[in-house]
Amino acid sequence: MQYHRYDTIIVGAGGAGMRAALEAGQRSRTAVLTKLYPTRSHTGAAQGGMCAALANVEEDNWEWHTFDTVKGGDYLVDQDAAEVMCKEAIDAVLDLEKMGLPFNRTPEGRIDQRRFGGHTRNHGEAAVRRSCFAADRTGHMILQTLYQQCVKHEIDFFNEFYVLDLVLS
After folding, report:
1. What is the pLDDT of residues 101-149, one digit of tens each?
2. Distance in angstroms (rounded) separating the CA atoms of residues 117 and 124
3. Which residues contact 78 (CB under 8 A, 6 or more apart)?
4. In this structure, how many other beta carbons lie within 10 angstroms of the beta carbon of residue 13?
5. Residue 158's beta-bridge partner residues?
6. Which residues of 95-105 are buried (b: 16+ CB within 10 A; e: fewer)?
7. 118-151: string of b/e by CB count within 10 Å (b at 16+)?
8. For residue 112, what is the DSSP state?
9. Any idea where the domains of the chain sit in the sequence?
10. Does the domain formed by 1-44+138-169 have CATH 3.90.1170.20?
């Protein structure tokens, strides 16, 4: 039996798992355990884009994004969590851009944004362009970008592993 020692173990290598591994890997020896090859996770199915109130194409802000998120969840959404997500979405998109994600661009060179269902300005007044996208392969490009960064930062991957039990000592 082979033994490994890591400070941090991430279970799952989708977009969230790889992003967590990158963050943890800055401070500790990190491994990712995943049942699939990392670029085959369901994150790759996302085509329409990821939402962030960048206001690159028209006026927008994170508060309107929060309103749309809560409304879209039939007001059952944890509103504090929605607020944090919408505030932090802007930096998350910019981080992915710095990592090399090839977002579509406006003629001025900014990340392009398009309309997507439920995105409005001024609390429902009119539709707004909030979805940041990489053609129709946004999820695929997120996975490729994050995996490339994980490899660059020497995150270890254990592919085709199912976690049944963890031994901590």
Report:
1. 999 999 999 999 999 989 999 999 999 999 999 999 999 999 999 999 9
2. 12
3. none
4. 29
5. 33
6. ebbeeebebee
7. ebbbeeeeeebbbbbbbeeebbbbbbbbbbebbe
8. P
9. 1-44+138-169, 48-136
10. no
User: Sorting pLDDT into bands at 50, 70 and 90, what band is 1?
Assistant: confident
User: For the segment 59-93, what is each residue's pLDDT rounded down to a tens digit?
Assistant: 999 999 999 999 999 999 999 999 999 999 999 99
123, 134 contact by CB (below 8 A): no
d(CA 79, CA 68): 11
Structure tokens at 21: 């591994």
Record the pTM: 0.91
Enumerate the β-bridge partners of residue 34: 159
